Amino acid sequence: xxxxxxxxxxxxxxxxxxxxxxxxxxxxxxxxxxxxxxxxxxxxxxxxxxxxxxxxxxxxxxxxxxxxxxxxxxxxxxxxxxxxxxxxxxxxxxxxxxxxxxxxx
Length: 105
Fold this sequence. Notes:
Blueprint: H1 2-16, H2 26-33, H3 38-76, H4 81-104
Helix pairs in contact: 3-4
């Protein structure tokens, strides 16, 4: 009897804010109706792979451009011009690599 009273009082508190709280979350609803099909899982994994590959490629292109520009500026005493040039080249190559990866998928 006490348990039902506590449950009813907690439901009343949830309803006083104007929001009806559900007992199940999205994950449990998906699991209760059945898991994803094999084709859906493969599609989701390919999308995650593509996004992570794009992120790492963009970061790598920009960082390599910065490092090369910085090293050449220090070696040739042309600061900051080669840094700017190679940074821009890194950004352009990052966009090209991003487009190439997106075309593959």
